[in-house]
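Dear Dr. V.,

Thank you for agreeing to look over these. As mentioned in my earlier message, I'm a first-year student in the group and I'm still getting used to reading structure tokens, so any feedback on how I've presented them would be very welcome. I ran two proteins. I've put each sequence directly above its structure. The first is here:
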Amino acid sequence: MGSINNKPRIFTSHHQSPCTRTHQIGALLLVTATFFLTRFLDHSFSPCHHSFLTQNDAASQHNFVSVSDSGRSLSWPQRGYGSHLSLKIYVYDENEIDGLKHLMYGRDGTISADSCLKGQWGTQVKIHRLLLKSRFRARKKDQADLFFVPAYAKCVRMMGGLNDKEINQTYVKVLSQMPYFRRSGGRDHLFVFPRF
């Protein structure tokens, strides 16, 4: 049956409601609740201390790290990599993979790494150089926890060495030659993509 208001409704695929004060307060409450919940869970699952053990015994039994801070001794559980970082990062060499040089120096090889240091995209070069000198650098892929793929694509693009389409095609070509990238689905590979 019909109704008095038989106007056709126009449905759009994109309906945006304005963000009201209620939305803002709700978001703030959600962030606050999340913060306190994570703090509560962190403290709830921390190992308990036994008063009859010395601090060093408790630290060793619960896999704690002991640190002295201005006469006081502090301890906390080892998380992540624990008391020392044993991370190893393999840095791909520019000659190792066909196409990587194009992402670093352009299709003609005329763009230098030093010229890429000058722009806002200099982080691509700086991080690459830092990792080449790092004590965490792995020389063999099978010893690596992470893999760094050097590319100065933003600089190369801004200086006319490659266009966006060429960059995309070159990345596909480079990634297809990396068995360790396929092994992990790329989860352990590091790329630097700066923005200005």
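The second protein is here, in the same arrangement:
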Amino acid sequence: MYLTDIYIYPIKSLGGIRLNESVLEERGLKYDRRWMLVDKNGIFLTQRTLHQMALIQVELMAGGLNVFRKDDPETNILIPFEPKTKKLIPVAVWDDTVIGQLVDNSVSKWFTNQLNIDCDLVVMPESTQRKLNPKYAVNNESVSFADGMPYLLIGQASLDDLNTKLQNPVPMDRFRPNLVFSGGKAFEEDEWDKVKIGKSLFKITKPCARCVMTTIDQKTGIKGKEPLKTLAKYRTVSNKVMFGQNMSLLEGLTIRLGDTVSPQ
């Protein structure tokens, strides 16, 4: 088994970026979900309610993030890695309220115009510690603005198995993984406790419960019923539909495509 895809999603709920290699950090892959859009109450925004967020793509540049519309790439804005303001505000991600740093008023205005909702872009400062649920933490880890865990792993065989049951196969981007591996059997990752990828070691913490976001076409922003409807028929555990495995980093600095993947 070997690593075939590495993805980061720098701004939560916007388009992801495929990488050839990445730096591993406690909170997740470098740049992954370090930025987040929030409404004027500081509540996080996602595709679950704003399907049009799927139409905004992020590109990693030398000096920051280039953000543009998939249907009109010239409608874009460059966001420097360093925020232009010093303003800190409380922001909410699910049950967690942490401190985010406002990036720039002009950036907020751009997103407000694109999404037709009054919003701000915040970045997670290093001083913000969003601790994992102790039930799943290994070393009292912090996590980014991700839904809950630093890393998400999915086997390509698991998606292939699902697609044999669908009238219209779906791509992996519906599930927004960080790491995808090839080889092995469908849902083999469900059985693992730890996994070594290249020279790095990860702890499998819990299955990933899926939501309506998997039903949004990432190219069009249009919501349907699949693949959640079909997944629910054979991947439901305790009223939750499971697909993929969440992980924490135990040791390691980098990963790259082609790294061997071996359960420990």
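From my reading of the second output: The first helix runs from residue 105 to 115. The two ends are 13 Å apart (CA to CA). Does that match how you would interpret it?

Kind regards,
E.
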